[in-house]
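B., you asked whether I could sanity-check this one before it goes into the benchmark set. Here's the sequence:
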Amino acid sequence: MEISKRPHILVCNDDGIEGEGIHALAAAMKKIGQVTVVAPAEPHSGMSHAMTLGMPLRIRKFFKNSRFFGYTVSGTPVDCIKVALSHILPEKPDLIVSGINYGSNTATNTLYSGTVAAALEGAIQGITSLAFSLATYENADFTYSGKFARKLVKKVLLEGIPPDTILSVNIPNVPESQIAGAVITRQGNSRWEESAIERNDMYGNPYYWLNGTLRLLDHDMSKDEFAVRKNYVAITPICCDMTNHSLIGTLEQWNLQK
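And here's what the prediction gave me:
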């Protein structure tokens, strides 16, 4: 489709409005269109598609260096999308972008991601949506990831993507000169090997910290985590439909009608 006007872009994340990644993403999107930022007031990583029920949500204006930057919502990334569409924006935006997340959202990690969930909520609401993640938890450099996000968003605005589908984009944390390229990938099978570290509080009562390591189980370029580790940008189309369609025929043969 032809872009006839500057698009309105809603920017969200799960790291919270003070996260460096959302400021890099908002800056990149402002070169394309009008931007509204609505993000959690506090970090909400690993919240997946959680919503706040039975508690009030509060909206606040957020200022950076005395300049208005966006709105905070006292809830999850999905709360932010819902509140933005119902109470902040006068009409639906042309696009939703989520991120740029600290840490990759590849393989089974995609299921836990609040960044991805915010984009999926956008798709559920009928809005073209993308999620961007930077594959590092330290020494993050958002220079190239912001540049690539702008490039891809321009392409999506021109070409579109199918309904109920988002693009989850994982970007290596290396200088642009070391980026090997961009590939279209599938969600891989790599998964976290987790453990709960037990400690004692000042009263001797045990408490636990979740800890883990992402175990690489994929070894070809068609899978997201493997591609990112080879310094490729991995672009994965993800659907809202979680049905295992290949199993339907088998289950129908179980004759469970009676």
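One thing to flag: Residues 8-188+218-252 form a domain with the Stationary-phase Survival Protein Sure Homolog; Chain: A, fold (CATH 3.40.1210.10). Otherwise nothing jumped out at me.
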